[in-house]
Amino acid sequence: MLHQDWMRLALKQAQMAFEQGEVPIGAVLVHDGQLVAEAHNEKEQRNDPTAHAEILVIQRAAEVMDTWRLTDTNLYVTLEPCPMCAGAIVQSRIKKLIYGASDLKGGAIGSVMNVLDYKLWNHQVDILAGIMEDECALILKNFFKKLR
Amino acid sequence: MLHQDWMRLALKQAQMAFEQGEVPIGAVLVHDGQLVAEAHNEKEQRNDPTAHAEILVIQRAAEVMDTWRLTDTNLYVTLEPCPMCAGAIVQSRIKKLIYGASDLKGGAIGSVMNVLDYKLWNHQVDILAGIMEDECALILKNFFKKLR
């Protein structure tokens, strides 16, 4: 499968969030070309400030893989992660982060800060940005337009 | 209760982590002078890379308070938070962070980066560092000495 195909699955998760009244962000985690876990933002329905798509997909993947070390995995997420989620990506030793749209007001992969790019971390994450960027940005735009 | 008294409770949590073979870090969350939640690092036993003391105490407090907005709460933690946890503190709108020891290799409240200090965040967190610093550092030192 191509990056676009995995991102399409992450977008499906974002769509589920949208339908549940959550900010529409979705994520999938892939290991050896296989889908390990999927998640979307559930902050409002869970009343949990940490229930971002990335945190949930990491927790689910760690459970499935029975280890907290998500070595050699790819994380696909529709939006540039916030500092919390970027930190969780470092903590979980994810190999590669692929995201769609940039988050100019809160993104921690370069937009407002760069949490991944520190030589002191004992783990370096590969980054690929802009995969299906327009679709990932559009679903957010539509969500906030509907809110107003 | 004084800051030291709450930090002593966080240290008790760290001690529980120590006894369970976890890196000994503890946290408590306080609202209106009342203890809302306690937690310690459970990463190894849960096989969950996000199961840091701060994440767990925030999740528990949000459940107890039945809201993800932990407005007007104080978070006490024995060690300077990592980027993931610092990000979670911003996400959950915690009013004040009080920590013990600094983490020169991973701390995100100034040691290797400062996740809290961005004008773009829609929430600013007060910071008080160095409460019971020696005791908070010693338990970590003892843990890593025992590991070697």
From TrEMBL, chains A, B:
Keywords: Hydrolase, Metal-binding, tRNA processing, Zinc
Domain of life: Bacteria
Catalytic activity reported: adenosine(34) in tRNA + H2O + H(+) = inosine(34) in tRNA + NH4(+)
Enzyme class: hydrolase
CC cofactor: Zn(2+)
InterPro entries according to UniProt: APOBEC/CMP_deaminase_Zn-bd, CMP_dCMP_dom, Cytidine_deaminase-like, MafB19-deam, tRNA_aden_deaminase
Molecular function GO labels: tRNA-specific adenosine-34 deaminase activity; zinc ion binding
Residues that coordinate or bind Zn(2+): 52, 82, 85
Alphabetical GO biological process terms: tRNA wobble adenosine to inosine editing
Active site location: 54
Domain CMP/dCMP-type deaminase: 1-112
Membership in a protein family: Belongs to the cytidine and deoxycytidylate deaminase family. ADAT2 subfamily.
Protein role: Catalyzes the deamination of adenosine to inosine at the wobble position 34 of tRNA(Arg2).
Subunit and interaction comment: Homodimer.
PANTHER family the UniProt entry points to: CYTOSINE DEAMINASE FAMILY MEMBER, TRNA-SPECIFIC ADENOSINE DEAMINASE
Record-given protein name: tRNA-specific adenosine deaminase
Organism: Desulfosporosinus orientis (strain ATCC 19365 / DSM 765 / NCIMB 8382 / VKM B-1628 / Singapore I)
Lineage of source species: Bacteria, Bacillati, Bacillota, Clostridia, Eubacteriales
